[in-house]
């Protein structure tokens, strides 16, 4: 499950790049924007502000779900659907980003999602 916490090869992520403010796009539409990047216990993730889409709440997405980073367009593409992100373990408070058990449950959820093919445009 460690790979869920690391950017995939070919994602376009460059170490040290700040993704804050980038639009996050799922396979079926926009999720929101990156509010912040965090790493606790070696579990790197993005906190994504969904705006009004999920009643104004934020969601946590492990960086292993990132399939593409476009620094010019300021977009981050993830390899899941909007519904899959919405159904992930609920993110309530910032302290959860430092809770090993919560992060493990999020990682387990995303790790169990069926693999998605990347589109060859």
TrEMBL record:
Top-level taxonomic group: Bacteria
Protein name as annotated: PRC-barrel domain containing protein
Organism: Streptomyces marokkonensis
